[in-house]
Each structure stands twice: as C-alpha cells, then as structure tokens.
C-alpha cells in the first residue's frame, strides 16, 4: 500500500508542476526539500483524502511540511488499514 | 490646475500587438484582431467571433508550481506589468523605494478559474475544489501578484468598475501621485473573459455581434449595421510617475495624463443613460481637471463598443459637450474588439501614439455613420493632424463613466 501511496503522491506533485526527479523517501515537503507552499500542501492533503478516504485535521496538514515523502506515505498507509496493521 | 503625471512605461497584451506602436499600426492599417475561435479554444462554437490575444506560457511569468493554477488574467497582467517596467527602465528597489510604488491593477478577476472550480465541485463534491481557487479568482490578485513579482510594497488595490476599470485605474493612479502618496504607480487592467459561461452571458444579453460571415467585419462602432460588441482579452499596464521623479532619473516620457473625470449614470445596471448626460459631465470634468478648455481637445478616442445603445448614447454625450463642432473622433474597437476593462488602457496607449505621431487613427468598418450629422468621424484612413490633447472615454456596466486627458509631456 505504501508504494501505491508514494506513486500517487509523486504523480500529484508532477501534475502540480513540482520537479520530482531527485525526490526519494527522505525528501521533505517543506523548504528543505520539495518546497511545497501552504496551499500546495493543502491541495495535496485534499487529493489524498479524496483518493484514499482518510482525513487530516488542520494541525496534521501543517505537520506535512516537516514530513518526508516516505513518512507521509507510511502514515497514510497505516491510517487506511488500522485493522490489518495489528 | 492640478499637476498631471507622466507615462514612462507601457506594457500591453492584446490581439493586435504588445506595444503601443504595434497596436497603433494595426488600427491605422485595419489589421484586425478579430477571428473565429479555432477548434480547441474554450469559446470555439460558443461565439462567432472573438479578439484573442497570443498564448503566454504561465511558467514564463511565475514559478512552476504556481503557474499551474493561475488564471490567464493574472498571467497577462504579469506580462504587461513586466513589459511596462522594462519600457520605463525602472527597477523597483534600485530606482525607486519599494514603499513609494503603488499598484492599481483591475479586472473582473479569474472568473474562468471560478467557473472551472464550480463545475468540479458539482461533479466531485468538496474534493474537486482546489485551495488555489482563491488566488486564482479573487479580483485583487492581479495587483497582488504584480506586487509580489516585482517587490512593490506601497499602496495596492484594484477597482471593480467593469469596462471603465482600466481607465479608472489610471485615474486613481493620478490621484495617488497628486496626493504625494507614491512616486510611481503601476496602473492598468487584465481581463480573460473568453470562456463559455461568461461569453454566453454577454450573448444572451444580446450584447454580442452576430451573423457576420467575415469575422473582421463584426465590430463596427458607430456604423448603421452594428449589432453588438466583440469580446476580447488582454492586459495593459502603464507606469505612471510623478514628472519630477521621472525627470530626476532621466526617464523617457511618453505622454502625460493631465486630468480625469468619473461619473455614474444612476440609470440602469447595463443600459447607458440615453441622453449621455453622465458621460458628457464626465468629459467636461476631465478637461477641467486637466486645466484645459474643451477646444484644446484635438482628438476623442471614443468608448464606441459597436452596440446600438452604447454608441448612440456616446454620440449624444459628445453633442451635449460640443454641439455642432466636436473634435475628430474614432473608436479603435473596430480592430481590437472590446477588451472590457483593459480597453481604457489600450486606448490610452493609442492616444499616446496619436500625440507622438501627429496621426489620428480611424474607426474600422465605419461604412455608414449612424446617425449622419455633426460628428467628425475619422474613417477609412488615419488623419495626419498634430494635436495637443486627447480625450479618451471608457464606460462600464453599472453606469460607470471615466474620461482621461492625455497630452504631450508638459507637466513640470
């Protein structure tokens, strides 16, 4: 599942005109990495909510800037399958 | 007489050129900007004819991620503002204190972006809505983006007076400079109305020209066979500057904006007051504000959109002001189409060229003036006449009237 989420995020970022050529699991979304601005993060969150049926509260959306692509993919994956994760 | 301000930079995005000289040449040569929207264009099959500006790659004016979701009106505004600053040889921060620069760039906003998002929401619910809709749609965003892009930190605003908005932005700029609130103002307008919902609204209001086999014949201001306006898109930004500021930095001065007037018809949301009294008062006000007499005006650039009611009311206004001896007049919309709020800026640029060249541009397609009478239409050919002052009219839905007075650089 994490792979599918990662692929979805990369596709979404590409569509949003971010350059993902050098992006890997350790790349952060914020200024030190992809440098996605607050509206971009909000859009990304909405897309993930739509696609995977998860929900983020406002604080979590802000935290996204600090996360790496890998961390975010795993977070979403855990949230999708809480039952099977245990 | 109150001081004027000087135009040091002109930037245009239009169906007939990106400089004042190109636009003026097109108007004088009758090189029309009107065409049938080609297949693949958003208003293909929606309108018979439109005035389409050249495509601009959003990434050429904005960083990649932002360029995806920006409205065309903003892209055109940024291009025009950049060109105007380059034309003025002005760099904010180097040549002028960023807090002493103002922006008044107007327009109806990113309505096609709004329409698109409304459709997406209807289809997909809240997940269809992008948070980028706000910077894509709000009508202040053209001005804001100009400020962000060029590091301008003084007064910024936009005025929402429909087709008078561009001219009114120039007027507001003059007011700001006279009040000493800035040394430089980027003023103008950007409009991107060529999408189906907006075009249909004009069409259903019976405002659009229709039925013309030759699309270039569709816009025919003051002609007996006129049957509506032709929607156009574009942007226009002027760098308006305190004359002393321009002189101190050795800037070239294109022309001066010496005065302006603004009134409202207080009559109807879309129909102009038939007697033209609001527009007449506006013209007198502008000439008086410039410290000139009515006889000093050597050329009137009419609003003249090619609608039945609008053109008739403007002629009534001109007769009210000038009686049987009006100055030579033309509308340049026969060639350019109607760029809504942008038209006031585009036509100010035409006025600048008319002053500079001593040449008055004709009204394209004006074959049979309606009514025949005491109007000195410039028709068929440009007319070589050196003039001292130009009066440029812009009128908008809502009954907004704005007139600008342009002269050779004279303000001390």
Helix/strand layout:
The complex is a heterodimer of chains A (86) and B (412).
Chain A: H1 2-15, H2 38-52, H3 58-63, H4 69-80
Helix pairs in contact in A: 1-4
Chain B: E1 5-13, H1 20-29, E2 34-35, E3 50-51, H2 64-67, H3 72-88, E4 101-106, H4 111-124, H5 133-137, H6 141-150, E5 156-157, H7 165-178, E6 184-191, H8 196-204, E7 234-241, H9 243-248, E8 255-264, H10 277-289, E9 297-301, H11 308-322, E10 329-330, H12 333-336, H13 343-357, E11 359-360, E12 383-384, E13 389-396, E14 400-407
Overview of this protein structure:
The complex is a heterodimer of chains A (about 90) and B (about 400). Chain A is globular and about 30 Å long. The model of chain A has no long low-confidence stretch (mean pLDDT about 90). Chain A is an all-alpha fold and about 90 residues long. Chain A is about 55% helix and about 0% strand. Chain A contains four helices and no strands. Chain A has one domain: ACP-like (Non-ribosomal Peptide Synthetase Peptidyl Carrier Protein, Chain A, Orthogonal Bundle), CATH 1.10.1200.10. Chain B has two domains: about 240 residues, Peroxisomal Thiolase, Chain A, domain 1 (3-Layer(aba) Sandwich); about 150 residues, Thiolase/Chalcone synthase (Peroxisomal Thiolase, Chain A, domain 1, 3-Layer(aba) Sandwich). Chain B has 13 helices and 14 strands. In chain B, helix 1 packs across helix 13, helix 3 crosses helix 6 and helix 7 packs across helix 13. Chain B starts with a strand and ends in a 5-residue tail after the last strand. The mean pLDDT of chain B is about 95.
């Amino acid at each position: 599942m994490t792979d599918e989420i990662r692929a979805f995020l990369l596709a979404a970022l590409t569509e949003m005109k971010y350059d993902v050529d050098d992006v890997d699991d350790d790349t952060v979304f914020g200024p030190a990495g992809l440098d996605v601005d607050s509206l971009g993060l909000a859009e990304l969150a909405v897309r993930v909510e739509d696609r995977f049926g998860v929900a983020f509260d406002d604080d979590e959306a802000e935290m996204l800037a600090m996360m790496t692509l890998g961390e975010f993919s795993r977070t979403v994956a855990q949230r999708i399958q809480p039952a099977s994760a245990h | 007489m109150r001081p004027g301000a000087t135009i040091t930079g002109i930037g245009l995005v239009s169906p007939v050129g990106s400089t004042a000289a190109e636009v003026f040449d097109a108007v004088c040569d009758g090189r029309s900007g009107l065409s049938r929207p080609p297949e693949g264009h958003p208003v293909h099959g929606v309108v018979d004819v439109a005035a389409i500006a050249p495509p601009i790659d959003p990434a050429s004016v904005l960083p990649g991620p932002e360029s995806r979701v920006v409205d065309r009106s903003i892209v055109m505004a940024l291009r025009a503002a950049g060109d105007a600053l380059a034309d003025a040889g002005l760099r904010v921060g180097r040549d002028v204190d960023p807090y002493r620069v103002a922006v008044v760039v107007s327009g109806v906003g990113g309505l096609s972006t709004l329409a698109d998002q409304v459709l997406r929401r209807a289809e997909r619910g809240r997940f269809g809505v992008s948070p980028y809709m706000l910077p894509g749609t709000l009508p202040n965003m053209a001005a804001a983006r100009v400020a962000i892009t060029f590091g301008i930190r003084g007064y910024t605003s936009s005025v929402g007076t429909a087709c008078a908005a561009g001219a009114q932005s120039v007027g507001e700029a003059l007011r700001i400079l006279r009040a000493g609130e800035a040394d430089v103002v980027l003023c103008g307008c950007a409009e991107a109305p060529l999408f189906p919902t907006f075009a249909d609204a004009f069409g259903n209001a019976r405002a659009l020209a229709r039925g013309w086999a030759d699309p270039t014949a569709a816009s025919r201001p003051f002609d007996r066979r006129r049957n509506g306006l032709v929607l156009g898109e574009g942007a226009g930004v002027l760098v308006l500057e305190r004359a002393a500021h321009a002189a101190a930095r050795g800037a070239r001065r294109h022309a001066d904006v010496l005065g302006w007037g603004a009134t409202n018809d207080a009559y109807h949301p879309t129909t102009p007051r038939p007697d033209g009294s609001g527009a007449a008062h506006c013209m007198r006000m502008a000439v008086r504000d410039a410290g000139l007499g009515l006889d000093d005006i050597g050329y009137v650039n009419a609003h003249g959109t090619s609608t039945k009611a609008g053109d008739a009311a403007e002629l009534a206004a001109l007769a009210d002001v000038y009686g049987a001896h009006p100055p030579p007049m033309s509308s340049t919309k026969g060639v350019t189409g109607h760029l809504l709020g942008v038209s006031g800026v585009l036509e100010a640029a035409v006025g600048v060229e008319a002053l500079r060249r001593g040449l008055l541009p004709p009204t394209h397609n004006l074959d049979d003036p309606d009514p025949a009478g005491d109007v000195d239409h410039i028709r068929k050919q440009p007319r070589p006449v050196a003039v001292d002052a130009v009066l440029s009219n812009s009128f908008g839905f809502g009954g907004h009237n704005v007139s600008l007075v342009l002269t050779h650089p004279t303000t001390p």
